[in-house]
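Tutorial handout. Part one gives the primary structure; part two gives the three-dimensional structure as tokens.
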Amino acid sequence: MQRVYGAKRAALVRGAGYLALWIVLIGLDPLDLAVGVVASAAATWASLRLLAPGTHAVRLGALPGFALRFLRQSVVAGVDVAHRAFSPRMPLRPGFVTHPTGYPRGAGRNAFASLSSLLPGTVPVRDDAQGLLYHCLDVEQPVLAALAEDEAAVARVLPRTDRA
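Part two.
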């Protein structure tokens, strides 16, 4: 019975979230709202099929700190990348590094790879048994240390408990 209650609660929370996002993006026009209810129901159904309730714990209290860190890091990294790209005295030294992530293969590892791909200067290009392979603009920078810090920040929001 607890599992059914969890599934119903997850469906209600996800559906409300999708509908709220629809309203923020589209507005409250009655016709648009009707389409939004249908779209939210479809998104909820798909999300429940793709990510079963209770399989991953997200620490909502850690999200604001993570969002601020991500925003600050995005700005700093973007300025650094632009400076390197336009400054002839700062040559780029592109290459590859392997980050041995603590996440097992699955949703948590995919979330970390996706978030790290949004930051300028590094892009995950392969996921294998050794970890995530990243292409980076300057291999002489402490890329692995930065990725370890990023992973620790993600782990505060999305604990490393998922299994593939």
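Part three, for discussion. The chain has two domains: 2-50, 61-157. The radius of gyration is 19 Å.
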